[in-house]
Amino acid sequence: MEINHLFFAYDKNMVIKDLNLKIEKNKITTLLGANGCGKSTLLKLITRVEKPKMGFISLDGKNIKNIERKEFAKKVAIVRQKNQIAGDIKVEELVAYGRNPYVGFMQKPSIEDKNKINEAIEVCGLEEIRKERVNSLSGGQVQRAWIAMAIAQDSEILLLDEPTTYLDIKYQIEILKLIRNLNKNLGKTIIMVLHDINQSLEYSDTIVGMMKGKIEFQGKASQVLTGEKISKIYDTRLKIIDIENRKYVFAED
Ligand SMILES: Nc1ncnc2c1ncn2[C@@H]1O[C@H](COP(=O)(O)OP(=O)(O)OP(=O)(O)O)[C@@H](O)[C@H]1O
């Protein structure tokens, strides 16, 4: 995916300003940046919820605005920050929504659709609760159910906007490991927004630092993050320390 000279504004508030970015296939890319720098807006532009004022986003050389709706859904899936479902539905029913781009109007799901739904349920460890109501689950289980829906969509690219927010550390790690497995085992290209810098260092191939609607830096997680760079994008004094060959971010004293 390539993002070229992208501009976007809410009314007169210019939120994305000449943003350029290349996202590598089959890698995990994490967007970091301060509150309000435009991360969620960028995901909205990538998923066509919002339209660029200028510039364009291309996928395999094609401007995404020219890709037919169902075709686009087969290429890009998203798990949003706040997901909402209509009604009191079961986990397996929610996951089945992921097959909508593949099932024709008034058609029944095919064997392949059912297999994909079962696969997604299995990958996300939801077999035992597939008949439970989504409204009755814990935060971590709900998040896994939404990720399973996105997996059933069987897209090449999976976007996740703060997938671990509101979860305790056990579920955070569970979700991040699941995301890593989706990348390694199913070859998904992952683009996610995280607020925990230490977790982003551990679970990403590439880190993208955003600041005021632009890309400030991009590179390998292990190489690109320095105290100076990370302090700049969060406008606060941070340092990076190596402990047992792993990098950690701390506040400066
Ligand atoms: N629907 C909207 N209408 C008007 N302004 C908006 C809307 N959504 C976001 N904004 C503004 O656009 C800017 C970027 O918001 P965005 O949600 O993309 O940032 P973010 O980096 O995802 O922030 P956070 O880390 O807090 O989730 C902010 O100034 C925000 O107030």
TrEMBL record:
GO molecular function terms here? ATP binding
In what way does this protein cross or attach to the membrane? Answer: Peripheral membrane protein
Where, per UniProt, does this protein localize? Cell membrane
Q: Which UniProt keywords apply?
A: ATP-binding, Cell membrane, Ion transport, Iron, Iron transport, Membrane, Nucleotide-binding, Transport
Query: SUPFAM superfamilies under this entry?
Result: P-loop containing nucleoside triphosphate hydrolases
Location of the ABC transporter domain: 1-237
Q: Does the keyword DNA-binding apply?
A: no
List the InterPro entries: AAA+_ATPase, ABC_transporter-like_ATP-bd, P-loop_NTPase, Siderophore_ABC-ATPase
Return the protein name: ABC transporter ATP-binding protein
Which source organism?
Peptoniphilus genitalis
